[in-house]
Amino acid sequence: MKHHHSHCRMASRSDGDDIGGGRGRRMTGEGRIFGHGGLRFVLLHLISEKPSHGYELIKAIEERLDGTYSPSPGTVYPTLTLLEELALLSVDEADQGGRKRYQITEAGVRHLDENRPMVDAMLLRLNGGVDGAGLRGGRPPQVKRAIENLKLAMRMRLSGEALTAEQANAFAAILDRAAQQLEQI
Do 67 and 135 form a contact (C-beta atoms < 8 A)? Predict the structure, then answer.
């Protein structure tokens, strides 16, 4: 059972650096995640680590932000196109599924190096800050530990045998009870 979070949408900007628009999701109380131009540096950095398809980049950002934010395709793809037009990225021929794989160019590597302070600032946001605070800031250590324990227990239980209908109902009931109890604190 998947719980739906409230989704905030913001007007899309032409430079592709907003956090909303399209189907992008912002599930925290934060404003712009990466600020003006920041998404460009994040995408360039991720591609410098590993040539990737746009979808893989969206998933990588979502994973690094613990699912609190997922950039929309309507934000990521125009930004990738811009980086390609600026010769900071090159694109392999599209595969049979029509997906393009992006690679960083020498100019892209120089651009990252020339903007290292900004790149480092964006990576801190992407990775949750030096002390793990970042976007997830303000969580007491015991709460962070408990969240990680719950995520691990769920992953371990769900990665084994498939749940029976009875087990699935019990699993969902436990999570629903926990959610209700948390709302009362």
Answer: no
Q: In this structure, are residues 49 and 56 in contact, taking their beta carbons and an 8 Å threshold? A: no
Give pTM, 2 decimals: 0.55
**Between vectors from CA 97 to CA 95 and to CA 102, what angle results, nearest 5°?**
45
Element holding 163 (H helix, E strand): none
H or E element: which one contains 72?
none
**Which residues lie closer than 8 Å to 151 by C-beta, 6 or more apart?**
none
How far is 112 from 106, CA to CA, in rounded Å? Answer: 10
Helix extents (H) in 86-160 = 106-114, 116-126, 141-159
| Intervals of the chain under pLDDT 50 | 1-31, 129-136
Bridge partners, residue 69, by sequence: 26
Number of H helices, E strands in the chain: 7, 5
What is the spatial order of strands in the sheet that 52-53 belongs to?
52-53, 101-104, 89-91
Whether 93 contacts 106, CB under 8 Å: no
Convert the pLDDT of each residue in 24-60 to its tens digit.
444 333 335 776 678 999 999 999 999 999 999 999 9
CB 71 within 8 A of CB 61: yes
> Diameter of the chain by CA atoms?
57
